[in-house]
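Let's study today's protein:

:::
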Amino acid sequence: MPANFSSLVGEFMITSLPKYCSTIAKNQYHNGHPDLIPAGMFPNNAVQYASEGIEVKASRYLRGWQGHNPEAIWLMVFVFDSNRPSDAVKNIQPKPFRFVKVCGAMLNKNDWSFSGRSGNSRRTITASVNNSGYHKMMANWIYQEPSLP
């Protein structure tokens, strides 16, 4: 499932980044928020919810990133390119996994559009990064493949 693969890529980055930056730690609280927190700030590097830290997302898309709640938080997005499960039936040849962009910025609640859900819907509630949030992210890119505009 494509969404599961994005989660796997995000989890890989959340686990890997603290190996190279000793001032951050993976949030050890199950489903804790945010994903990366200041190392040593919380007991056992675990906190259910904090305003300090970085929320990490991985996406195949150059924009339209989503979270569950509109909130003031540092957001870091790893945009990647890879094959999809449906590529084989479309005769799309295998290609290597690659990151095409990494960006991060401090977003506030106004940088999100909240979708919510209707009373009888079972869809997970979502909030999407809107234009103001997107422009903040693009103004603070960390890596960008040279072929991108």
